[in-house]
Structure to design on (71 residues):
């Protein structure tokens, strides 16, 4: 336990890929920000390749792990 407060609302039942597609249709040109693995975006693109044309900007928040013994 890290002392975080409990969530104020329940998680949505809608899968993330479906939510990405829905939002892209409701607001074409939206900015899509990723905070971790890109699996949900890949699933959304597989389901609807037109997603790429509805995203105005894609911001990737990436990081990497460096093992000092390997470098």
């Amino acid at each position: 336990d890290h002392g975080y407060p409990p969530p104020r609302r329940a998680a949505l039942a809608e899968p993330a890929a479906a939510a990405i597609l829905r939002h892209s249709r409701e607001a074409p040109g939206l900015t899509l920000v990723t905070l971790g693995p890109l699996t949900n975006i890949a699933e959304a693109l597989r389901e609807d390749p037109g997603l790429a044309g509805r995203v105005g900007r894609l911001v990737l928040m990436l990081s990497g792990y460096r093992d000092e013994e390997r470098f």
User: Anything to note?
Assistant: The beta strands are 30-34, 55-60. Helices lie at 16-26, 39-47, 51-54. The first strand starts at residue 30 and ends at 34. Residues 38 and 60 are 9 Å apart (CA to CA).
